[in-house]
Each structure stands twice: as C-alpha cells, then as structure tokens.
Amino acid sequence: MKIYRNSDDIEDTFPGACVTIGNFDGVHRGHQQLFASVVEKARSKECISVAITFDPHPLHVLLPDGIKLISNCEQKEELIERAGIDVLLILPFTKEFAKTTADSFVKKLLVEKLGVRELVVGYDYAFGKGRGGNIEFLKEQGEQYDFPVTVVDAFYMDDQLVSSTKIRGLVRDGKMAAARILLGRNYQIRGTVQVGKQRGGKVIGFATANLKFNEEDLVPKHGVYVTQVIYEGRCYGGILNIGYNPTFGEEQLVAETHIFDFNEDIYGKPIKVNLLKFLRSEKKFSGAEELATQISKDVAIAKQVLQEQAIELEMFCSEQLG
C-alpha cells in the first residue's frame, strides 16, 4: 500500500480512483465493509482503491477535550493495508484545514488530484466546513462531475450497531469479548517499554514490561486482564494491570504487563498487547506478599483462559505477524 501524508505529495493526477473518506478510528467491521466495497469497485473499474483519512483526528483539533482513540495512526495504517487498499492518503488536520469548504474539497482533491471515478461513504458521513459535505451534497457533486456515490448502510453484529462510539464504551467497561466482535480482532494497546520502579521482579517476583498512555489514548477499565503479547515476531501469553498501583501509592497511570515464559531485556523496545479478558478490578493490598499471592492466582486463571482459546489465539497471532 502506498501512503501519502499530504495531498501535495501526489505529483500527478491518478488515472482513476475509487475513493472512501473517513476517520476510521478502530478500523472496525463497519469500516471494513467500506474498504471491501471500494476494493471491489476499483477492481471492476480497473482503477486504484484509495482511502482518505486525517491525522490528528479532527475532534482533537475542534473540541477542547478531544477524543480518545481506539487505534493510533500507525495501527490504522496497518489495518487499512490489511483490508487491501492500494493508496492511503493521510491529510494533516488543522484549524485552517477545517475551514476548507466541501465544494473545494471535492473539486480540488477528489476530482482534480485523485481523478475520482466512484466515491464510497458511510451512511452518516459528512465533511467540510460546517459538515456541508453530507450525502445529498455528495450525490449532487457526483452528478456534476460524473462519478457515482455509493452509500454503505449501517452495519450490525449480534443486533448491535458497529460504531467507534459503541466500541469505546465497551473498552471503558472492560468488555473485551464484546469489543472483539465489533472490531473483528482483539482490542490492542501498544508502545515502547518504559523503565519503571523495577519492583516487579525483585520485590513481587513477577517482572513487568511497562507502557505509558498518551493523552489521546483510549484507556480500558482499570484492573487486570488476560493478554496476548506480540514482540519481535512472536506471540506470548501474559497478564496486564492497568491503573495506579495503589499498593505502592503510585500516582501515574501505567499498563504493567507480565509476559509468560519470557526473560529478555526489552527496555526501549516496542510491544503490542492484545486484551483478551478482564479478570478483576485493581485493588490495594497490604503489601508485596499479599499482592504476589493474588498475582499467582491471576496467572493461573490467565493460563487456563489462554489454553481454552489456544486455537483462536494462534489464528490471531498469524494475522498479526502475517
């Protein structure tokens, strides 16, 4: 997949493109329906499939409190590529860009730059200054510039509307199995392993890899989770605690992952952690000994869960590494 991080990087008009536009936070099953439609139409028209998205998320720029993201831009790129899209255009979103009118966006970008031959959008999509680029407007523009507009209907799984908003709520509630259904994969956090207090292995007996959350990250319900950890081309089982470590009076929110059957120095290295199942809420213990006893119980339960899901997890691991 070819990635452009600014429309100015596209030197020549595409010979023809089937295009979809959206924020695509989470690249959930609903988004995947859009991408599948674009790819199919591009093949039938013998042109390229293009997805347009924005970075940062527009609501980070337009709202004081921003929005918590299901997936960062790096993960979004990976997932869109996996969907089979030929070209991803990531437009830098600023307050100045927000003033772009829908008319200008269609004419200068879609028509003149991309050579749009068909546009595919979600049922509720709108863009441009004042969200003037709604479905009705897009169909009028399609008639003017001779490109059809396909509107993909809302997508449901188990009678639930698949939406980024719904998924955020499930993740905040620790409902990972329900989130997995709507995402089509496990919810994942990722980052670079930080140097922590280093008491995990020495004091408690369970070494941990610590990840810090960024301001825009969607933070799952605080507590302990069964996890699948991906590091340097291999998948491992593990447990994860998200919280402030009240037993030791910490004040910084952190994700601490104990990786099973693993003994490597990975400070400064990137890891990915799939959250499989919420086990329990975070709790303050009397000290290191009581905490270690509870972690031993958590590990035993986690290993049982991992064994029960072994076939499914092997499939997920192959997809992540493929």
Structural class: alpha/beta
Number of strands: 14
Summarize the biggest pleated sheet.
6 strands, parallel
**What is the molecular shape?**
elongated
Question: How would you portray this structure in words?
Answer:
- The chain is an alpha/beta fold and 322 residues long.
- Helices cover 34% and strands 26% of the residues.
- It is built from ten helices and 14 strands.
- Strands 1-4-3-2-5-6 form a six-stranded parallel β-sheet, with helices on both faces. Strands 9-14-11-12-13-10 form a six-stranded antiparallel β-sheet.
- The longest helix has 21 residues.
- It is elongated, with a radius of gyration of 22 Å.
Summarize the model shown.
By secondary structure, the chain is α/β, with parallel strands linked by helices. The chain has helices at 29-45, 58-62, 73-82, 102-113, 135-145, 164-172, 176-183, 200-204, 288-308, 310-321; strands at 2-4, 17-21, 48-55, 87-92, 116-122, 149-152, 156-157, 160-161, 187-192, 209-212, 223-231, 234-243, 254-259, 270-280.
